[in-house]
Every structure is written in structure tokens, then in C-alpha cells.
């Protein structure tokens, strides 16, 4: 296994992107002003700034109304809501101001059209093309199906790909939330970069010779199709699973995982909410498919997947467990674990200019993928919130012209995580204690 590098890896591209990022207005988890489609229904929605919401507890209190926070600034947040939801929040004492579209605020334009991004079908075609071009490096398999019957595909990338070798495995998941199409582009970038550079780039070659990489380009294909393929974006977040007894559609897949599900006010029990957690943990078929795949990587009693990134947009953040509690340590998360998460998360953020922090520093979430991956499977799991930092960069729908720049921006982070997949504790100098053969 590779030894810990001295110094941090930097690239000209990363430095240039960081400079650009610092020039943008700072914020986290933002959204562009959306076209028709609302949380839980199909009514018209828009973006609102909510004043006086500045701390993690204040943000958590807002999310406990069933509201999904899209962007968090130093003294306010941005949400997406329809008129009825906005009035309900005003009735609870929140001060809301409707925002105009980013282009009207003289900022970067939103994507010109849904065609700026690969469709679900085009994504599967790109996977098939990579498999045909690089049969010794790439294989794919259908690991299950969505509520509407679409294939959920896992792609394996490794030297000697046909053999299940005893090597550390790294999983990258994308598109849990339907409208976050840039994350699918991230999957296709990683697939293209690892395959095209194998045998040419010494680092990538060494990593693929000693690691197995898994990509799931779209965890939520039904939601992706619904959000993208009507001719205009719908700002849809959840899956497309009906809810018994309600006209509202969908479950928030990233509140549906089976660790501390529904425990702590970090999700909603209302089907109309964007953060609806479902009727039970893994009640959404897409969550169950990915969870079953991960559980299936336990071989001989040992989980083969050691590290994971779940890609989202947006906010330019690197987040780690736990999300369900403000505490730095909790059952199943020791001080050494927390130190390793922080050190590795900071190292990843050093490569792309994102902000590193524990997930609950934003607000409490429960039933999230990172918490489950770590607490249930012992996988060092991170969430990346990709470009932009705020709605001024296009929110969930940044222009297609930034796709290449913002996916390649994470190249070094991907390689860094692959490097540490043999032993994340190596980053705090405790590999002998935790990873000795």
C-alpha cells in the first residue's frame, strides 16, 4: 500500500477554480429560482430568502417545519416554496422575501436548457460506451430498479476488472436528489478520467492496480427523468413514489437510510415535504437497492468498501458524520474516528477549495446516507456539495459551460480518497493501531 505523502497535492486547475470560487458571493447549499414543480406537488414554486436564521439550531428549527434549506448564509437562508408554504412559514413568524431569478440579479445565467446535461438514457449509453472501449477496466451491472422500473446501474473500474480481488473498494454515488444533475456529470467525468488516463498517468495507474472503484451515476433515475425531460426543469428533489393516503409524491432518499431514521427532527413525516423520510427506513426502493448493494460487498464478514463520497449540489462543502447530532463523538464514532474524518475531509477540501465541516454544523439531518455508511457499515463516508456556492452561480442548474471545469475540479479529491482507501487512519498517524495486517 502507498505511503502517506508529504505535503498537499495541488494543481493549476484547482488553484484557478479556488480563485474563482472566492470571487463569488459566499453561501452554502443554494438553489436557482425554479420553474414549475413544487415540494411534494406540481404547483408553481419560487425561491425565498428567510431572514434571521443564522445558527445551526435556528436552521434546524426551520427544517423541522418540513422545509428544505437550499442555501445558508451568515444571517439568512434560502428556501424553495410555493405560495401556500411561504404563507405558512410567515404565519410561524418567519420573515420571507421573494427572490428574482439569478439572471435578473446580473449573475451567471442558469443552464440554457435541460439539454446541457446528460439525460438518464445518455448516461447509460456513456457507461456502455466506456465498457465497450475499456473491457479490461470497466464492467457494469444492474443492481436493482427504481419505483418506475428504471435500471439502477453500478459501474466497476479497476485493473483486471473481471476478478473480485482483495483490494480496498471505493464507492461514489450521485443524484440522490433528482434536480442535482451536475452530480451525474461528475460520475461520467470520473469514469472518463480513470479509464483514459490508465496506463498513461502514473498515479491513476497505480491506484487502479491496487483499488476497485464503484460508481452509481444515478441513484434516483425516476426523479432525474421527471425533473429534466419535460422540456424545462421542475426543481424536483425526491423520488417519484406515490404516498398512500396523500396526493403528494415522493420520498427524500437522503432521509430514508436506516440509521437514526426519523430520530431527531432532521426529516419530515409529511409526504408533502421536500424532506419526507418515507414510511420506514429503506421504504424507498432506490435506497434499498443501494443499501443492498453495499451490504452485498461484505465478503468473509468484512466490508470491502472502505470509503465513499455521495455527490450533491450545491454549496461547495465537504461534510462528514454525524448529521443527526451536534456532538463531535457519539455511539459508534470515537474521538479517533472523528479526528480521522476531520483530517481527511479537510485534506479533500484542500484540493478543491470547498469548506470542510461536520454535517450537523449546518443543521440536523437524520436517516442520511453518510451516517448509515459509517454507523452500519464502517465506511468512511463524505458528502460533497458541488458548485456553486450560492444561487448567483445558477443554483441547482448552473450553465452547461461550467460542467467540465467543476467536475475536473474534484479530480484530486477523488484520487486523494482512493489513496487513503487502504487506511483512513493513516492521515492521523494511527495506521499501525487500526490497519495492521
Features:
eight-stranded mixed beta sheet; disordered N terminus; metal-binding; Peptidase_M14; Carboxypeptidase_T; 437 residues; four-stranded antiparallel beta sheet; Aminopeptidase; alpha/beta; single chain
Folded structure, characterized:
The protein has helices at 12-23, 56-63, 83-91, 120-133, 182-197, 202-210, 221-228, 285-295, 335-352, 369-377, 403-408, 411-420, 431-434; strands at 46-51, 69-72, 76-81, 95-98, 138-145, 151-157, 169-174, 212-216, 298-299, 302-303, 305-313, 317-320, 355-358, 380-386. It is of the alpha/beta class and 437 residues long. The protein has 2 domains: 12-16 and 115-434, Zn peptidases (Aminopeptidase, 3-Layer(aba) Sandwich); 28-105. The strands form 3 sheets. It has an 8-stranded mixed sheet with strand order 5-6-8-7-11-14-12-13, sandwiched between helices. Strands 2-3-1-4 form a 4-stranded antiparallel sheet, with helices on one face. Strands 9-10 form a two-stranded antiparallel ribbon. Strand 5 and strand 6 (151-157) form a beta hairpin. The termini are close together.
